[in-house]
């Protein structure tokens, strides 16, 4: 039993311990810094700010609208830059009933859509086929 323990079990235990320690040190290295660059988005924000406008890049992929959900602020102007990157879905336009938006999305061409959320809550948008492919904004 002694040779089996020395040749098999000891190296396995050593590798397991090393993996656990490496995982713990990696978590420490990836912890977010509390210092925030001015104008940089926080961990929960998506997009960037340009002249007081929240700019969000959205992509239409085989998975749908990405990213989603996207947090927004009530009363803050939003500019969506939407690029349809696939021709394999019905999401060839973006429809948002609450803001009377119905915009065609040509393949591989960024399209700007602007609006200002005026109500808090979840705002659903999606394709013209009853929002079968959809995304959401969460407005605070």
UniProtKB/TrEMBL annotation:
The EfeO-type cupredoxin-like domain, residue ranges: 50-139
SUPFAM superfamilies: Cupredoxins (SSF49503)
Leader sequence segment: 1-30
Region (Disordered): 30-50
Keywords: Signal
Domain of life, source organism: Bacteria
InterPro entries, per the entry: Cupredoxin (IPR008972), EfeO_Cupredoxin (IPR028096)
Pfam families in UniProt: Cupredoxin_1
Protein name, as recorded: Copper transporter
Organism: Corallococcus carmarthensis
